[in-house]
Amino acid sequence: MQQQASAIVQTLKSRGLRVTPQRFAVYANLLSRADHPTVEQILTELNKDFPVSSQATIYSSLQALREVGLVREVLLEQGVSRYDAKVEPHHHFCCRQCGAIEDIAWNNFQCIEMKNLRPGLRGETYEVTVQGLCDRCIVD
Ligand SMILES: [Zn+2]
Ligand SMILES: [Zn+2]
Question: How far is the CA of 94 from the centre of ligand 1 (A)?
Answer without folding.
Answer: 8
